[in-house]
Design brief:
This protein has about 190 residues and is of the alpha/beta class. It has 2 domains: about 30 residues; about 150 residues, Glutaredoxin (3-Layer(aba) Sandwich), CATH 3.40.30.10. The chain is built from 5 helices and 8 strands, in the order αββββαβαβαββα. Strands 1-8-7-4-5-6 form a 6-stranded mixed sheet, covered by helices on one side. The chain has a two-stranded antiparallel sheet with strand order 2-3. The N and C termini lie far apart (about 80 Å).
Length: about 190
Amino acid sequence: MVQLQTYRWLAGLLLLVVYLVVRHISATMDGPTLTVSPPEARMPFVTEFALPDLEGTLVQWSALRGRPVLLNLWATWCSPCRIEMPSIQLLYQDYWARGFEVLAVALDTAGHTVVAPFVQQQQWTFPVLLDPQNMLGARLQVPGIPATYLLDKWGRIVSFAVGAHDWQTRSVRLLVEQLLTEDGAGPTP
């Protein structure tokens, strides 16, 4: 009888833990709460960096000025990264022709050997950069991955999110639309 009560108590505790985990995952997958801070209140992102893409071409951060950018730090072994990437791909497909850019920085230590086949299998079309030494992640002091920065046309931080998110929500799409149409809000010389 005591064993049966113990099993029921453990089963109840297990159900509570499962409920809380599912609730947490659901809450984070609803998408980040994104608000646009006024352009004059936005903080600059980082100084120049350059990382190779999957073809070995060096991509410089400064080359993206004039376009809103979603910068995502991720790895092939990261489950939350894998969960959010399809929504990033859809966002890129919907807005790249209008000047929106996505840069996915892979932090896998094996670099090209692991990342290139993975990206090809997933059929992602946005640029993927390689950072096997995690130089950018360390420089940004990201607390975990996936870590995503949404930046305006002048490279200032509009939003920052850690963890998997749905980048196809209405609020994200409205924000991207707003960033694409912003003008005259660049930093004064």
